[in-house]
Amino acid sequence: MTSRGTVERIHTLVIGGGQSGLATSHWLTEAGIDHLVVDRRDRLGGGWLDRWDEFCLVLPNFTLLMPGMPYDGDDLDSFMVRDDVVKYLSTYAAANSAPVQLETGITRLAATDGGFLAHSGDTTFQARNIVLATGPYPKPAIPAAARQFSGRIRQLHSNEYRSPGELPDGAVLVVGAGQSGAQIAEELHRAGRDVHLSVSKCFAAPRRYRGRDLGWWLLQVHLHGAEVGVEMKPPPPAGRFAGNPILSGQGGGHSIDLRRLAPEGVRLYARLETADGTTARFADDLAERLVFAETQFDKTQRRLFDAYIAAAGIDAPPDDRPPADSFVPDIVTELDLAAAGIGSVIWATGYRLDFSWVDLPIFDEWGYPRHDEGVTVHPGLYAVGLPWLTSAASAVFVGAGADAAHIVEHIVGRSEP
Length: 417
Fold this sequence. Notes:
FAD/NAD(P)-binding domain, globular
């Protein structure tokens, strides 16, 4: 090795070893394209390694549709636990003999004549093509209010949370009631903790609708909706980052009704606005936020599913969901954390994209690469696994294979004389 480090030449470099990176590797291998998958972690599993200990998939196992190795176990309708998801990805990589190099984080990506230079420590990868497969959850988003809390309060993002037993004794404030925040609040409550939950503007969804799991309807619309003229329309650009519906795969899967958590002992608040030492202050629109959570499914996904059922001629039973709970929690806008015995705050406030290491002018005002179905505006640079890259399924197992197949077809076209 010289003082300037080593240079490794590779035709196509895939940055990220989660499901989208491994799906891309599968199709590259099928096409006979020399490539390497690099990942900053010390083992495969992607962002699933950052989920808490008892995390389960929110969509059933039948949605695990990695190309060449869809889930073929006996529990199609169950919800795989985190460690088994990680094992599934490792097994998939081994079955495909994926060329993976771990503990290789890319710190800078730049263009060069005829390709790219990707820097990782003392190694520089020189590649003709680059696939960005770092996923939708690279950088935890933590509000400025976090800096206003007393240092005596332990703070952590949901990305770091693992189990109730690792938190300090006492009550917990969970900020954000999206999919992760609502599930973590439930878990803490079951563990006997006093839980205070700041409610985000996210919508709840039923676990089952018209005789099927929600995931089944989502899968059918994704796979067959276009055939009958029913498709999920893409959101405006900012809407690509909207939270996932409040739902859980725990205990065989269930809905989460925020309003019903209150009489069980979980204290609800609206959006956290400011903090001062051990005092947290919230907006006064909790009632409106609960109504939003309870009504958005009927305004969006229910209409989509009903249209698909009608267009496809499916004999589905009627909607048999129980009526909404009528409990009205008290509106509280200020909380003394010390008086409430709160020893920790969990920020379930989502993530931001982070392509700060990509030294190319390809990103829009939201930090999202400008692209056409994953083919970015810079020749030879591709993206997979991002929310709404081509469809609602792009960032989950269901959509990884198709999106990866499309960009690999483009890579093959670039490679032909």
